[in-house]
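We emphasize that the prediction below concerns an isolated chain of 157 residues; any contacts that depend on oligomerization or on bound cofactors are therefore not represented. The input was used exactly as deposited, without trimming of termini.
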Amino acid sequence: MKIVLLTVGKTTDKHLIALIDDYVSRTSHYVPFSVETLPELKNTKALSTAQQKAMEAEMIKGALQAGDYIVLLDEHGRERRSVEFAQWIQKRMVAGGRRIVFIIGGPYGFDASIHELASEEISLSQMTFSHQMVRLFFAEQIYRAMTILNNEPYHHE
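Result of the prediction step, given as a token string:
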């Protein structure tokens, strides 16, 4: 099973890029994990929010593969503690499939068509974070889940 974090728009802060790359590298020791970045929309001033979400949805759909287990990172999704998230990942991995694809949408969230494709929605917090920070936090949580599942001392309870 491969884990993919699909994002709309690239991370621009070099410090965040280095940290995200570090967690991707660490996690890849346990499971194939990658971050795939879709380009930001250009010239959006004349577009409505709905039009922007629809255009992003088409890009997202183009990056998905048949059989993907799609999980949206959304503020209205289910929150889990790190141990619960690790157990959830383990169940998904045992259930089979080629890829679990976690998606971070654009600034206005997801088009309804993407919500319909998703099997689940999760939230990292009730607080709002920048999309760039969410990438780092999520990459770290995937790494943390792998260390929990392997009984390594990274996570403390």
